[in-house]
Each structure stands twice: as structure tokens, then as C-alpha cells.
Specification:
14 helices, mainly alpha, MetI-like fold
């Protein structure tokens, strides 16, 4: 077990290194000259533009720019925003908790809806419960997040007046208002993830219910709820854990549209603004943080494998 986890940890550094090369290389293909954009009204003055290129090393070869950026990164410096001149780490520290809160809430909603629905659908196969769960799952996969968000704002906020339509209040400032401003966008994000978890849980449960150990448990006279929860579900959760870890990473990186609809100042707004203004240091920092989250969540998934399946503890 320790050797396997050690190998996973050792893969983090080369993975992030390859991500850094890809991100830095692909952004060089983006149209437009960052120096001209940053110069603004002074773009017509060649001296101003050249001075900006010199300050930002834009007049150096791309490998030299990358090595300089990588050296700063290894020393814990992600650079400074070309627009606000703030440290990228500061901007990320301001926006990351917002998206983390939204993503965690959405994932909790997805788990509370998706996994029980998948279990019921598998246990009650070919019944009305099965059709209902599959219908909800199909709707969750089909309805776009931005459309669902707009409809919820019209219904819950405009017509019923139950929740604020947009905005964000930090959790430490007022936890009740914070939950009120994030519960709708969290539901929008968690809705599609719940549908994915439901379908995979149903498939894994159907496979587990046909195994010999389940038939043996039933032959021993165990109650059906014990057979389902202790025997079938525990083994069916192994593939679902992998999916859950990947989908949690997707929540953190894919909340762009939802944050825009609900005016939440998270990672989504930060990355969109950075792309449109050619703020390369911010784009690089956000992508690297998202990549690290993906790798870290996969590591957590590997640990959960061992906790769920005792047979892997000796591996």
C-alpha cells in the first residue's frame, strides 16, 4: 500500500511539470500582442511598447521566458498580474475559497442525490422507482447549467423571493447569508454531477448484486438491507470513488458559467477576465492550481480505495 501511494505521490511533480510546459506553450499561440494590450492608449508609442516587452521579458526567446517563469515558480512565486500588479498567489488565495466552498457544497448535493438514487434504481430495477431515477438522471445530463441557473433565479428569487438572485457573502462573515447565496449555484453544479453518479452507481450496483457473495449472503438469511449496504454497496463504491474524485475536480474547474450567471467572484470570473485581458501569469497560476487539485483528488481516491476494499491493503 505504501509503495503504491508513494508512486502516486512521485507522479505529481512530473505531471505538474508537463502541465506547465503545455500551458506556457499553448498561450504563446494566442492571438494579439500582450504588450500592446497593456500599453493601452500609449500603444502608438513604440518606446512604451518596447519598455513593456523588456520588463516582462516578452522580447526574449520563449524557452528563456519559460525557464525564468519556472525558476520563480520553484521559489514559490507565481508572478504578478499584468493588469492589477498584485501577486498571483494573492489573487488565487482570494478566489480559491469561494470556488472551494461552491464545489464542496455542489459535491455534497450530488452525493446525497446521486448515490441513493442509483442504489434505489438498482434494487428496484424495472419498477416505477427505476424509471423515475433514470428520468431524473437523464434530465440532469441534458439540461445546461446556465439555463437551469436562470430558471432557478426566475422561480426561487424573482417569483418566490426565497433566496437572493446573485452575489456572494464569505462564509466567515455571515454563514447563513453565505449559504443562502451559494445554495442555488451549488445545486446547479451538483445537479449534473448527481446524474453521472446515479448512472454509475446503478451500473455498479447491478453488477455487484449478481455476484456469488451476494447470493451467499442472501442464502444465509441476512436481511435485504444488510445485503445491499454491507456487501453489494461496499464493492460497488470502488469505481464510483474514482468517478467522484474526477467530478469533484471538474466542479472546481468547470464552474465558469455558473459563477457568471450568479455573479460569484470565484475562479471562473478570475480565469475569464485573465484570458480576455491576456493576463498570462494569472492564467498560468489558475491552471496549475486546478491541475494540482486534480492530482491531489486522485491521490485521495487511491486512499479511499484501500479504506473501502480491504483486499487492497496488502498490495
Amino acid at each position: 500500500m505504501r509503495g503504491s501511494l508513494g508512486g502516486r505521490v512521485a507522479q505529481i511533480i512530473p505531471t505538474l511539470f508537463m502541465v506547465s510546459i503545455i500551458v506556457f506553450g499553448l498561450q504563446q499561440l494566442m492571438p494579439g500582442d500582450p504588450a500592446l494590450i497593456l500599453a493601452g492608449e500609449s500603444a502608438s508609442d513604440p518606446k512604451v511598447v518596447e519598455q513593456i516587452r523588456e520588463q516582462l521579458l516578452l522580447n526574449r526567446p520563449v524557452p528563456v521566458q519559460y525557464l525564468h517563469w519556472l525558476w520563480q515558480l520553484l521559489h514559490g512565486n507565481l508572478g504578478y498580474s499584468w493588469q492589477t500588479h498584485e501577486p498571483v498567489l494573492t489573487l488565487i488565495a482570494q478566489k480559491l475559497p469561494v470556488t472551494l466552498q461552491l464545489g464542496v457544497m455542489a459535491f455534497i448535493i450530488a452525493v446525497l442525490i446521486g448515490i441513493p438514487a442509483g442504489i434505489v434504481s438498482a434494487v428496484k430495477r424495472d419498477t416505477a422507482w427505476d424509471w423515475l431515477a433514470n428520468g431524473i438522471g437523464l434530465a440532469g445530463l441534458s439540461v445546461p447549467n446556465f439555463w437551469l441557473g436562470i430558471m432557478l433565479i426566475l422561480l426561487v428569487s424573482v417569483h418566490l423571493g426565497w433566496l437572493p438572485p446573485s452575489g456572494y457573502v464569505p462564509l466567515g462573515q455571515d454563514w447563513q447569508r453565505s449559504l443562502a447565496t451559494t445554495i442555488m449555484p451549488a445545486f446547479v453544479l451538483g445537479n449534473s454531477i448527481a446524474a453521472v453518479l446515479m448512472r454509475h452507481t446503478r451500473s455498479a450496483m447491478l453488477t455487484a448484486m449478481q455476484q456469488d457473495y451476494v447470493r451467499t449472503a442472501r442464502a444465509k438469511g441476512l436481511k435485504e438491507i444488510v445485503v445491499v449496504t454491507r456487501h453489494a454497496l461496499r464493492n460497488a463504491l470502488v469505481p464510483v470513488v474514482t468517478l467522484g474524485a474526477l467530478e469533484l475536480g471538474t466542479l472546481f474547474s468547470g464552474a465558469v458559467l455558473t459563477e457568471q450567471v450568479f455573479s460569484i467572484p470565484g475562479f471562473g470570473k478570475l480565469i475569464v477576465d485573465a484570458v480576455f485581458t491576456r493576463d498570462y501569469p494569472v492564467v498560468q497560476g489558475v491552471v496549475l492550481v486546478v491541475a494540482f487539485l486534480y492530482v491531489f483528488l486522485n491521490l485521495i481516491a487511491d486512499v479511499l480505495y484501500v479504506l473501502i476494499n480491504p483486499r487492497l491493503r496488502g498490495a
